[in-house]
Specification:
Elements: H1 3-10, H2 13-20, H3 24-33, H4 35-42, E1 64-70, H5 76-79, H6 96-99, E2 123-126, E3 131-134, H7 138-142, E4 147-154, H8 160-169, H9 179-186, E5 197-201, E6 230-232, H10 250-271, H11 274-297, H12 304-310, H13 320-332, E7 337-342, H14 351-375, E8 382-387, E9 391-396, E10 407-410, E11 414-419, E12 427-429, E13 431-432, E14 439-441, E15 444-445, H15 446-456, E16 466-468, E17 471-473
Parallel strand pairs: 1-7, 1-8, 4-12, 4-15, 5-6, 5-7
Antiparallel strand pairs: 2-3, 4-11, 8-11, 9-10, 13-14, 16-17
Helix pairs in contact: 2-10, 3-4, 10-11, 13-14
């Protein structure tokens, strides 16, 4: 296209105001129309936060989050929600008074029966408060006094993609910013050499049956793209193109980025596109990560007793144990939000055999992370969250025998646990009926969970917003209340 014609076409009313947004005139206009927006813009990087918030809304209990995301929906009935009376209902149909016409998935809607499948695994009480925990989780039983088990979680979605999108972004509809992106945008990270939001996807453990994970689950949505989560790879460079190509030194790469930065700054002055600013910031972060990331992922200097605590797989990049150790190392370096995915909990059939294999990868590293942070004096300032997108049904999907069964998706109630970072330890919150089908006490919605997480970081979930398409969006939409009973 002719450059002059392109320039004239670019100078629409929208582009004029877009360009003006970088000038003093637009700043003054914004201050007159909405002083709070102007204050937030000025406050980027101000004392108290490293994001757009001028200061935290209240004193925080946690400085960072590690979310151990058990993708595909672990069975609360076989891990956390002990239901001894179910033994009496083996192979008996779930009473209609319990289901009460609630929706079920198409995977079991065609079944002529909904036979109850009690867990074949034994439970025992652990800790001073006697929390019931499955024999599948012996290491987690050792840290029962450090965790808060929430048995009354519930969600809106019944299938994987909308459910995992909902719990990670606050909406079943793709395109919204994830929790980590909101934190990066709002309060940023104290470490300039590492991203505020890092994602670690663990390799599929033996016994795992999994659904796909999409990068939008840790995306920035309508926020600037620099707030997206950075996913580290388990082989080769942890981040693509982290290493310089043959013949290119760090000095040459620095000169190249300086030249590219000048071109991008010129284009930014021309059109005022905020994504250009995000691109500049991402290039600079990538350059700094050339030094910070190799040191981060090098666990060779970790003491032997620490490695042993995480288990035999800790030295295998991509394993869940290795990623849990990396999460601790990121916490030490100030990374605001680390999300560790472990897939494979989608046990529609053959659950007992498959879950036995999966917990071998999950149990010890989870407990080790708690112990490791605690012995370093970091647990009080680090919030750990464990859980998936929904739970599993009490009735069996497919054939049922004394030692084999499957479970369908169940959004009505599921179990998560939290530890550290302002959470009251050694307690169980909420209760379900004798079939682990309905919540009977203290329900906690996904929006309540996210509101509580933000609260622990010093953020009022109703005030961290972003104006888009004529309204203010937030992580918790128009819902969410803080679960004060679980706060220390």
């Amino acid at each position: 296209m002719d450059p002059f014609l392109e320039y004239k076409l670019a100078m629409t009313r929208r582009h004029f105001f877009g360009r003006s947004a970088t000038g003093l005139g637009a700043a003054a206009l914004g201050a007159c129309m909405n002083p709070s927006i102007f204050a937030n813009d000025l406050a980027s990087g101000a004392a108290g936060t490293h994001g757009v918030m001028p200061a935290l809304h209240h004193a925080p209990k946690a400085k960072r989050i590690i979310w151990l995301f058990m993708a595909d929906g672990p069975s609360q009935l076989d891990l956390w929600d002990y239901k001894p009376k179910l033994a009496e209902y083996f192979d008996k149909d779930l009473p209609e008074s319990v289901r009460n016409g609630q929706r079920i998935t198409t995977m079991t809607s065609g079944q002529t029966r909904f036979p109850c499948a009690p867990s074949i695994f034994k439970f025992a009480q652990h800790g001073q408060h006697g929390a019931w925990i499955s024999e599948l989780l012996p290491k987690m039983g050792e840290v029962a006094d450090d965790i808060c088990i929430v048995k009354s979680m519930h969600t809106d979605a019944i299938n994987h993609d909308p459910a995992i999108t909902f719990i990670t972004t606050g909406s079943e509809i793709p395109g919204r910013p994830s929790l980590g992106a909101w934190l990066s945008y709002g309060i940023g990270s104290p470490n300039d050499d590492l991203p505020a939001f890092v994602v670690l996807i663990s390799r599929l453990a033996q016994g795992g049956q999994t659904q796909a994970l999409f990068s939008r689950l840790w995306g920035s949505g309508f926020l600037p793209t620099k707030h997206s989560g950075v996913s580290l790879r388990s082989s080769g460079d942890p981040v693509l193109y982290l290493s310089n190509p043959p013949g290119v030194s760090s000095d040459v790469r620095r000169q190249m980025l300086d030249g590219l930065g000048e071109l991008n700054q010129a284009r930014l002055s021309e059109v005022g596109d905020p994504e250009i600013s995000a691109r500049i910031a991402q290039y600079e972060m990538a350059f700094r990560m050339q030094t910070s990331v190799p040191e981060l992922v090098d666990i060779s200097k970790e003491p032997k007793h620490v490695l042993e605590m995480y288990g035999d797989e800790v030295t295998q990049p991509g394993s869940f144990a290795y990623n849990c150790l990396l999460a601790r190392r990121m916490a030490e370096r100030g990374v605001r939000f680390t999300q560790v995915f472990l897939r494979g909990w989608d046990h529609h059939g053959g659950l007992p055999g498959s879950i036995r294999q999966l917990v071998k990868a999950a149990d010890q590293p989870c407990a080790a992370l708690i112990k490791d942070l605690k012995q370093r004096g970091m647990l009080d300032e680090t919030l750990i969250v464990w859980g998936g997108e929904f739970g599993r049904t009490v009735y069996s999907q497919g054939s049922l025998t004394k030692d084999n069964y499957g479970r369908d998706h169940h959004p009505r109630n599921f179990t998560m646990w939290l530890a550290g970072g302002g959470i009251k330890p050694g307690m169980v919150h909420g209760e379900t009926d004798d079939f682990s089908y309905n919540i009977t006490e203290k329900p906690v919605h996904v929006h309540d969970l996210n509101a509580t997480i933000l609260h622990l970081l010093g953020i009022d979930h109703e005030k961290l917003t972003y104006r888009m398409q004529g309204r203010d969006f937030r992580l918790t939409d128009i819902h969410g209340k803080i679960v004060s009973e679980i706060l220390a």
